Amino acid sequence: MIPKKSLFKISFNHYLKHKIQSILLILGISLGVAVIVAIDIANINARKSFDKSLRSISGKTTHNIYSSTAGLSEDLYFSLRKILGYKNIIPIIEEPVYLKQFPAQQFKIIGIDPFSENSLLSFFGSHDIRLDSRSFELFLTEPNGAIISDQLLSKLDLQLGGSFFLNSNSTQREIKIVGVIESGNQDTLAFSNKILVDIATAQELVDYKGRLSRIDLNLKSYSKDKIDEIKNFINSKYPESYLIRSDAVAKQSKKLTKSFELNLTALSLMTLLIAFFLIYNSFNYSLVVRRPLFSILRSIGVTSKEIFYLILTEALIIGAVSSVIGLALGIILGEFSVRLVSNTLSNIYSVFGQTTFEISPLSLLKAVAIGITAVFSAAIIPSLEARFIGPVSLSSRSYFNLSFMRFVPYLFLTGAFMVSLGLYITVFSVSSIQITFIGLFFIIIGYTLLLPALMVILGRILNRFARPFLGKIYLIACRNYTGSIDKNYIATASLTIAVAVFLSMTVLIESFRSTLTLWLENTFASDVFISVTDRPSENKGLDFSLLQKINSIDGVKNIGYSRKIELITDGYGKLNLIALSENPPINPQIISGLIGDFKDLDRLEGDTVLLSESFNNRYKERLKDGYLFIPTKKGKHRFIIAGVFSDFATQRGTLIVKHDLFQKFWDDNKITSISLDVSPGFEIGNILRNIRSKIPESYNYRLSTNRDLKESAHKIFNQTFAITNAMRIIAFLVAFFGILGALVALELSRKKEIGVLRSLGVKVSEVKNLIFFETGIIGLLSGILSIPLGLIMAYILVNVISLKSFGWTIGFLIKPIYLIEAVFISLLAAMLAGIYPSKVFSKIRISEAIREE
Amino acid sequence: MIREHNCVQFESLSKSYFDGDKEIKIVEDISVSFPNGKTTLILGRSGCGKSTLLNLISGVDVPSKGRVLVNNSSLSDLSENERTLFRRKHVGIIFQFFYLIPSLTVLENILFPLELNNISGNKSRKLAHEFLQKVDLNDKADVFPDTLSGGEQQRAAIARAIVHDPQIIIADEPTGNLDSKTRDQIINILLNLVSDKNKTLILATHSEDLIDLSDNAYLIENLKLKKIK
Ligand SMILES: Nc1ncnc2c1ncn2[C@@H]1O[C@H](COP(=O)(O)OP(=O)(O)O)[C@@H](O)[C@H]1O
Ligand SMILES: [Mg+2]
């Protein structure tokens, strides 16, 4: 039903007359929609990045052959080719490299066999990448020709046909660009940090003469027996190599990403909730303000149905306008959050810079739907109320509050039930992480239902205790709080939730930070660290001879080293294996295990390993017998689990063994990190300079002092928590806008009352104080109310979710300052919202305000 | 304190409003004196400018031209803040729609102007109760205004307007929203209190019933104030 024209005009004029309120209303709803869009975009794109990083180079691959050392023998490839024929077997080099111009950024060199039609097909065929025939021809014929992405081309500031230098261990080589792949779809984006060359060039560049990074196999048409036969062949002839299904690695990564996704989803649901409140709030107030108007309309014969439809039409129009603005805003915000998320991803999961930016129509639709639903649900109650509106007067205010107050006990009971259920689910029962999140939501929703009763109690306390100290003006403010719980409720609820989110994020971040700091402090105790920056592999590392040279420097003592390699296992996906000498760079913090407090490696006897906490948690079931099988150069071997150490360095599972054990099974003679202490009386700068002079230029290494190391760790930490931090800021912004819209509308609706006060002789400055006092009460009490919820949420995030999803045990840290900060933030948001109404009221024309209309 | 014979004076006073560019004249170049301790009526049909004139006297509004003198000093020379303080101390206002503060009880509403004038403690309580007695609202002291009848609300408003002992009481159609029986009661209470305390009352109304009860009466007509009593 379309409202009558004149009714429509009344509404329209109302919005036109109250421009600031209208702008705030639209802004509030837009912001709500924008937040939904932004988080959704971040979520989807994070998932996409993961999926892409999981895709192997050749799409038709069913199995891969990896080596537990760096590189496979080419002979294996040749022998397999004899068995399997050319068609289903593809040799590949895929290794990190550095460009001279961008020493800090990792690129990947991809070497394929350009003459094997199959390897080209599998590369280009599975990726939707088009290359013109001229480039293709050049790629086949040009000795050092490479194909790169247009993004890299512009980054290098080069043209097609130009050339650039690639650094490798010992050489530098000029590479000529023979082809450029235009970015435009997902696959080309995945290609952006890759340099495609022919396999021989790649082998030379990464010192892989006679070796391969891996072999991709397509064994779709082979029976299980045949595959086992191939497996046995590899095991007997090349024990350090092993065949695994391609999806084994992917599966493990999927498991990892799921937890991250869940966290993002939880964040997005939380913002959704806040956004809903924000939208509801904004629209609800635009209606509350007009109760007198509606009652006049009713009294002159407009039916309640007509008012109902009028409000719904308004809701539709305002919802639509705000949604459009919100979508635009959300896309901008989304781009920003994608960047934050990608930082987090590359820090926690070493997903290479493959972030994408994609907007799905579905998420836009979802945002608009939620926006309009919120507006509509905000419209329902007041439009139903319109039925009961009586004659207008300044004193009729309590009617609505009274009818609202009747529901308070029921709301409280429902809320208490929901919170208890939520607490039971999250804290006291063993349940999956999804269920934990549902429990968290029960708590949040339940808590908002408890709020009206809590507001009444707090308001009463305030009235009782503040009364003797307050003048009548401030008494008015206190009374307005308890006297208009209905009007203050939504503002309080959204402020409370937003501040609770803020508080829980603070506690989460600070708990993580303090745990990490302690861990860093204990784990890295040496004065100086030297570490290889290349990805761990056999030939990428420092030579043992270097150890002697550095040890001979005056003032160097307690020298120790470690070796880190990457294992690809079929049971546990990719793992890091770290071998430690005496006085190692890493001093693992044992949290449980056979050997108790870990001080020296001598206690690690026999074929034993230490497991990282997250790894242990992830495979608890499979590891419960106390041992695991690991591929070694001598084939698979059984290792006893000696203990579990806490590891915040990476989400990837990490194993620690003693270096002599490592030597026995892997026969490796490189070093990844060296650590040393500086004897008293020696200058650390001199020693660093001395060390530098001993290390050949061609190494990619980083020399850092203890402080550097910890600083960079904190930097990474901050990047990792950028999204959490952003959430915290969004929570505040939402709180601010929510409260701004709400309070501005609420205060402005009291124009007449203020006019009366002024005519009774209340000064402008006193009116200002009154407004700030009123908004301040809402802010203060919301801040106080947010503390229990914030702490419960933080407890669940820290103790339940981070353990369940990341496998990390975090020390729960609450400092009084966080609580004070939360109350302060709440108060600040509310008081800032008081500025505009107090400005308006200080310029109010009294005669106008008190005129009978 | 020497009280001038004339408490409030209009001196070549003009007042107009602007609706956009359009000037709406209410009164033009009027000079009138309202004697001290007397009741003066301002009559006129609805919309002729009665409230406007009262607002000029209370300092809620300022004239477009000319001056409003209270005790021989010009309100226009005061700052906004000073006018507020003037009103707080020397004026009591009674509105057509009562305009009690909804979040204060009846007693607190009456205490309010006392508090604004820094009268507190036992003294203010005593005064407030004395006036509650006078307007016969003893039993309603601790209830909120929205539970009172219109007549009761206006009685509370009268007490609020006089309790702090202002020199001038301004009543803008105080009975305009009440039934006739209540109207008489309210007028009685108001006039008794005013004569009791020797206040200057300026009362705006559109009905001529009250002319007999007043000392002076003016009619707003053709932008002028015409003395009819
Ligand atoms: N603030 C204002 N702005 C514009 N016009 C006004 C304002 N206040 C009053 N008026 C107009 O001035 C005229 C006199 O108003 P008012 O003094 O309230 O009359 P009365 O009290 O006699 O009914 C009316 O026409 C009214 O519309
Ligand atoms: Mg009037």
What does this structure look like?
- The complex is a heterodimer of chains A (853) and B (229).
- With 853 residues, chain A is of the alpha+beta class.
- Chain A is 60% helix and 16% strand.
- Chain A folds into four domains: 1-53 and 249-395, no CATH class; 70-239, no CATH class; 454-524 and 710-853, no CATH class; 534-699, no CATH class.
- Chain A has 29 helices and 23 strands.
- In chain A, helix 10 (246-288) runs parallel beside helix 13 (361-385) and helix 15 (408-428) packs across helix 16.
- Chain B has a six-stranded mixed β-sheet with strand order 6-7-8-3-9-10. Chain B has a four-stranded antiparallel β-sheet with strand order 2-1-4-5, with helices on one face.
- Chain B has one domain (6-227): Rossmann fold (3-Layer(aba) Sandwich), CATH 3.40.50.300.
- In chain B, helix 4 packs across helix 5 and helix 5 packs parallel to helix 6.
- Chain B is α/β, with parallel strands linked by helices and 229 residues long.
- In chain B, strand 7, helix 6 and strand 8 (200-205) form a beta-alpha-beta unit.
- Chain B has helices at 50-58, 80-90, 106-116, 121-134, 150-162, 180-197; strands at residues 6-19, 22-35, 39-43, 65-70, 73-74, 91-94, 168-172, 200-205, 216-221, 224-227.
- Chains A and B meet through helix 17 and helix 26 of A and helix 1, helix 2 and helix 3 of B.
- Adenosine-5'-diphosphate sits between chains B (17, 19, 24, 26, 44, 46-52) and A (847-848, 851).
